Amino acid sequence: MDAYQIRVIKAYSHSNHLRLYAVPEPERQIHPFLLFIRIFASDKKYEP
């Protein structure tokens, strides 16, 4: 991982708690790390 990716992950780790409440109820049963991956992968804003 380069420094850019680490900064992005840190930013997500701080905002992820709030974003969890924005997902549909069935998805809240997903393991938090997998949900984190899904949110991270679906957010085009942080793609290089």
Summary of the model, kept short:
This protein has one domain (3-46).
Descriptive overview:
This protein has helices at 3-20, 32-42. The chain is mostly helical and 48 residues long. The chain has one domain. α1 packs across α2 (32-42). It is elongated, with a radius of gyration of 11 Å.
How is the topology of this model organized?
Elements: H1 3-20, H2 32-42
Helix pairs in contact: 1-2
Largest sheet: none
From the alpha-carbon coordinates, what is the Rg to the nearest angstrom? 11 Å
Q: Which word captures the global form?
A: elongated
**Structural class category:** mainly alpha
Residue runs with pLDDT of under 50 for 5 or more positions: none
Beta content comes to: under 5%
State the total count of DSSP E strands: 0
Sketch the topology as an H/E string, one letter per element: HH
Query: Count of helical segments?
Result: 2
Give descriptors for this structure:
mainly alpha; single chain; 48 residues; elongated
